[in-house]
Design brief:
72 residues; alpha+beta; 3-stranded antiparallel sheet; extended; 40% strand; 1 helix
Length: 72
């Protein structure tokens, strides 16, 4: 079971850009997350094909389960 923290940002082109962090620390602290996301926007450290990051859109933890089957 793999978990990722997905950070969603609004861009200057009206799109949504996402950054993902593997194995997030839980429970997630929303206040700390907001500060971190504001810092990411202010630093302009990430490039997105959807435009510059300009606003905090949201965040969510995504859990992924994979079941493999042997094909006989």
């Amino acid at each position: 079971m793999a978990k990722t923290l997905e950070l969603q940002f609004g861009t200057d082109l009206g799109k949504v850009a996402r950054l993902t962090v593997d194995n997030p620390i839980e429970p997630v602290d929303p206040a700390a997350l907001k500060v971190a996301m504001d810092s990411i926007i202010a630093s302009n450290a990430f490039f997105s094909a959807y435009g510059n990051l300009v606003s905090v859109g949201g965040a969510r933890v995504v859990e992924r389960n994979v079941t493999e089957y042997e094909i006989i």
